[in-house]
Design a protein that fits this description.
3 strands, membrane, 3-stranded antiparallel sheet, alpha+beta, transmembrane helix, 151 residues, transmembrane
Amino acid sequence: MTDTVRAWAAWWVISAALWLALVDRNALDELVTGAVAAAIAATGAVLVRSQRERLTRVRPVWALRVLRSSAGLVTDLPLLVAVLWRRGVLRRDEHGRIVERPFASTEADDPVQAGDRAAAQAVGSLAPAGVVVDVDVDRGVIVEHRLEAAG
């Protein structure tokens, strides 16, 4: 069995299990629909997988960083509401700022460092007050747009 067929089968099983968990019915029409939906999802996953340029490995420490960053979903809301009020309602000409911070994972072919860059972009953009714009591997920095408090 080829690697692609194994990957397709694994994605089909995962997608079918998710369908069954979400639908919570085992009527024949739901099972057939779930099987077709799982086949479509598995095909899409295998197609996306075939386009990847390199493997990425995400380290477990990123799970802790997700928990820490998810606090920003709540703590950044007052700043977000204030900025939306000033920019959207009062029409003030205010801007955020671009922040650059050192970032060490710049080795292009290392799967762990590629995973670090992907996770940094996802986790860094989780809270509403900041969005990771880029990880500049040439300069070794992470570039982020941050909302500014009124000042």
